[in-house]
């Protein structure tokens, strides 16, 4: 069998080398960052696990972990806190989503220096709240008016941020007096003139076909964007667009290449026939989220599928480093994440092969599968720690150069 470094290198072999190198560097930071960048290893190992408990089929985001919840502005312009990454989304056993999330609690808390006792409490809390809300059978959501604790404080702070602030941070005045994207070579990188022109033409056409933005916006500038961990190495662009009726108004639009789900190779469950990987991502996101991000849509550029959405000042995540010494705050966030996970599965139940709500409710009431899931997640955290050490050794030795 291939070594951990070989499995990682093979999985990322088709991605853009320069940005994949950045991914490798980030993955070397700690076991949790490594866990976030190796979703494919997790599911490859899970599908070979003996006697893992059965569960009803559900739509899952596929890469659920502590960093894949966050705030965003919905297409109704209100602020929400919800699951926010669907690159790996597909139809799979409901417990697969749960066990990855619980494993992330074990790995993430240890990386943050949180005690084993509090880590166990957080893992048990997530599973307990998830099963409770699944058993109730009602999908809920979080917005500023319904949030509580640290999530409420977080969302109230986010709501105060303005679009103009984001534009000011990400742009600067060019030689012609018009705004252009500020290239920092950390998150935003330049692209060659030909590609920039082709992208701008394409997005201008997309804007003209948009029912919301048609005849109102035009592209001023474009660049390459770096964000996240697992998706690094795929093509991702950022566009600065200007309101043609009011030149002082601008938007930033994110356009991300949609690659096949890394969960798919380890599943024998039939999936719908999507027109593209981007359609898969957006369709499942529509089903699982209560309200979708502004301008969420798909496009095909140079034969590759992409997901588009508005980049917003409200697209933020909880910084667990700031609350690692405050278990009550951690518990508050974990509780919200748990009922949001159950709600996403209930909201999308019964669609194209997913179990009906009654089966998910029954699964929520069933206690027999919960301890095996906790035990697997707990044990797998140790596997991640060992795999990280193998990876780190190979990385330092230049294997990924």
Structural topology:
Layout: H1 4-11, H2 17-27, H3 31-36, H4 39-46, E1 57-60, E2 69-73, E3 79-83, E4 90-93, H5 94-111, H6 116-136, H7 149-159, H8 163-170, E5 171-173, E6 179-181, E7 188-189, H9 193-209, E8 217-225, E9 236-243, E10 250-257, H10 277-288, E11 297-301, E12 304-311, H11 320-323, H12 327-347, H13 357-365, H14 370-396
Antiparallel strand pairs: 1-4, 2-3, 5-6, 7-8, 8-9, 9-10, 10-12, 11-12
Explain what you see.
This is DUF2252 domain-containing protein. It comes from Puia dinghuensis. It holds the Pfam family DUF2252. The protein has 401 residues and is α+β, with helices and mostly antiparallel strands. A hairpin with a 5-residue loop joins strand 2 and strand 3 (79-83). The protein folds into 2 domains: 4-160 and 320-396, no CATH class; 163-260 and 267-311, no CATH class. Strands 7-8-9-10-12-11 form a 6-stranded antiparallel beta sheet, with helices on both faces. A two-stranded antiparallel ribbon has the order 1-4. Strands 2-3 form a two-stranded antiparallel sheet. Helix 5 (94-111) packs across helix 14 (370-396), helix 6 (116-136) runs parallel beside helix 12 and helix 6 (116-136) packs across helix 13. The chain contains 14 helices and 12 strands.
Helix content: 40-55%
Would you identify the regions where 5 or more consecutive residues have pLDDT less than 50? none
**SSE arrangement, N to C:** HHHHEEEEHHHHEEEHEEEHEEHHHH
- Percentage of residues in strands: 15-25%
Count of individual helical segments? 14
The number of domains is 2
C-alpha end-to-end distance: 22 Å
- For the largest beta sheet, what order do the strands appear in spatially? 7-8-9-10-12-11
Largest sheet: 6 strands, antiparallel
Shape: globular
Class derived from helix and strand content = alpha+beta
Tell me the total number of β-strands.
12
C-alpha Rg, in Å? 21 Å
Regarding quaternary structure, how should these chains be classified? single chain
Mean pLDDT: 92
Protein name: DUF2252 domain-containing protein
InterPro entries: DUF2252
Pfam family, one: DUF2252
């Amino acid at each position: 069998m291939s070594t951990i470094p070989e499995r990682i290198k093979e999985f990322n072999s088709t991605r853009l080398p320069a940005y994949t190198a950045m991914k490798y560097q980030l993955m070397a930071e700690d076991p949790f960052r490594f866990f976030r960048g190796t979703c494919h290893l997790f599911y490859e190992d899970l599908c070979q696990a003996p006697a893992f408990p059965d569960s009803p089929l559900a739509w899952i985001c596929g890469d659920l972990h502590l960093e894949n919840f966050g705030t965003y502005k919905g297409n109704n312009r209100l602020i929400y806190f919800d699951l926010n990454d669907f690159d790996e989304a597909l139809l799979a056993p409901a417990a697969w989503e749960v066990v990855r999330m619980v494993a992330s609690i074990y790995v993430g808390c240890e990386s943050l220096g949180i005690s084993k006792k509090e880590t166990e409490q957080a893992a048990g809390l997530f599973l307990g709240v998830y099963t409770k809300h699944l058993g109730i059978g009602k999908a809920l959501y979080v917005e500023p008016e319904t949030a509580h604790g640290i999530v409420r404080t977080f969302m109230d702070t986010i709501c105060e941020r303005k679009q103009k602030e984001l534009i000011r941070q990400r742009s600067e005045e060019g030689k012609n007096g018009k705004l252009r994207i500020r290239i920092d070579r950390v998150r935003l990188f330049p692209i060659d003139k030909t590609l920039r022109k082709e992208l701008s033409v394409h997005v201008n056409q997309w804007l003209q076909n948009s029912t919301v933005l048609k005849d109102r916006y035009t592209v001023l500038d474009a660049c390459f964007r770096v964000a996240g961990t697992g998706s690094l190495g795929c093509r991702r662009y950022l566009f600065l667009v200007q309101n043609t009726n009011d030149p002082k108004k601008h938007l930033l639009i994110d356009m991300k290449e949609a690659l096949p789900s890394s969960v798919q190779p380890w599943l024998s469950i039939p999936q719908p026939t999507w027109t593209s990987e981007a359609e898969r991502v957006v369709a499942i996101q529509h089903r699982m989220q209560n309200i979708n991000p502004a301008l969420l849509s798909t496009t095909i550029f140079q034969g590759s599928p992409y997901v588009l959405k508005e980049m917003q000042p409200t697209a933020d995540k909880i910084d667990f480093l700031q609350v690692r010494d405050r278990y009550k705050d951690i518990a508050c966030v974990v509780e919200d994440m748990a009922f949001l996970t159950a709600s996403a599965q209930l909201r999308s139940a019964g669609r194209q092969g997913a179990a009906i709500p009654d089966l998910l409710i029954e699964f929520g009431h069933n206690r027999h599968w919960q301890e095996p899931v906790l035990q697997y997640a707990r044990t797998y955290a140790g596997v991640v720690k060992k795999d990280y050490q193998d990876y780190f050794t190979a990385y330092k030795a230049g294997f990924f150069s």
